[in-house]
Write a structure and sequence with these properties.
Length: 345
């Protein structure tokens, strides 16, 4: 009798054990581990941006995509919520908000300082190693009538072709440096120019500095910018050198810098340059999230095409008032032209 009772008890215990609910798949260690690992990755990326430690490759390259990373982190927090990993949701969402808070002010126009000096229109174009639509560039100049034009990636062919198309008639003053590949950078102006070679960064791309005579005793200093592209480890030192050697505002005539900085407002070197006395025209007018560059064909035979980022900027002395900023349609180049209107102090 006791043996039968013992057998019955063991059988009932086994049946109850089989009836216990199994751990849901989304609560398994592997899923939770992957969730936390992804949150850790978001935390590292956010820390690099928020603490300005984007130094060396690939951090310098990857930090250009903060607006997209903030959006991706928010989406991933939603995925974590779907699998009910609430602690990870809270951490990832907090990081997404922190990154969004760093970029959101770019979409809000800032109050500008009182300025009573001459009004200048500044345009920047990148010729895509001289192979862009040069007729389009001349058409833009005819339409918008900029006072100053910064041209990057000027080749000997592009120089001759722009002259044939009449650019030098539209903007009679110029300092032209052409080169093979992306080396050449040039400055065209409606006003007389005096070159300031001592203010030009000694980089792998030519960059042209000049004092512009606006008449009536008014002058402005201008740098046509083309910083080295930090796409590989060996280019990072050149990129850093360009930023270190760019002119800073002082007690003299105001500076305007315009061109392809190969940096976004999420790069700490760009923010430090601005903090030294400049205003970014796009940021000041609420257009700081308007993107200016995306490769035409991508990499790895077109399989990888990064999203657009804002590499082209107009920086004005912080005493000046930025009245307008536009990203113009691109045509034949991987960079969009940019146009800013500035009133000098």
């Amino acid at each position: 009798m006791s043996e039968a009772t013992g057998a019955d008890t063991a059988e009932a215990t086994a049946e109850r054990s089989d009836e216990r609910p199994r751990t849901a798949w989304y609560r398994r260690r592997l899923v939770r581990g992957l969730s936390w690992f992804s949150t850790f990755g978001v935390a590292v990326y956010a820390a690099v941006r928020l603490f300005g430690i984007d130094s060396g490759w690939p951090l310098v390259t990857s930090i250009a995509f903060v607006p997209y990373a903030a959006a991706a982190a928010a989406v991933w927090a939603g995925v974590q919520a779907a699998v009910r990993h609430w602690r990870a949701v809270a951490a990832t969402a907090l990081l997404a908000v922190a990154m969004a808070a760093a970029v959101a002010p770019r979409a809000i126009a800032d109050e500008q300082p009182s300025a009573s000096g001459p009004e200048l229109s500044v345009m920047s174009v990148n010729l895509y190693v001289g192979s862009g639509n040069l007729e389009y560039v001349v058409d833009l100049v005819e339409e918008h009538e900029p006072d100053l034009l910064s041209v990057q990636e000027m080749t000997p062919y592009a120089q001759d072709e722009l002259a044939r198309l009449g650019l030098e008639d539209l903007m009679p003053h110029s300092i032209i440096t052409s080169g093979w590949a992306a080396e050449g950078t040039s400055l065209y102006s409606l006003h007389p120019l005096e070159r300031l070679e001592e203010a030009e960064p000694d980089g792998i791309f030519y960059q042209v500095a000049a004092e512009v005579d606006l008449g009536g005793g008014e002058t402005v200093r201008f740098l046509a910018v083309h910083a080295a592209a930090p796409y590989a480890p060996h280019r990072i030192p050149h990129w850093e050198q360009d930023f270190a050697e760019m002119p800073r505002p002082d007690d003299g005539a105001p500076w305007i810098l315009a061109g392809d900085f190969n940096a976004t407002l999420d790069h700490h070197l760009m923010r430090e340059l601005i903090d030294d006395g400049y205003t970014d025209a796009a940021d000041a007018t609420g257009e700081g999230l308007a993107m200016t560059w995306r490769p035409l064909e991508g990499y790895l035979r077109g399989l990888v095409r990064p999203p657009a980022v804002a590499l082209d900027h107009v920086l004005a002395d912080e005493r000046a008032a930025v009245l307008d900023f536009q990203v113009l349609p691109k045509d034949g180049s991987d960079h969009s032209p940019v146009l800013a209107t500035i009133r000098l102090p």
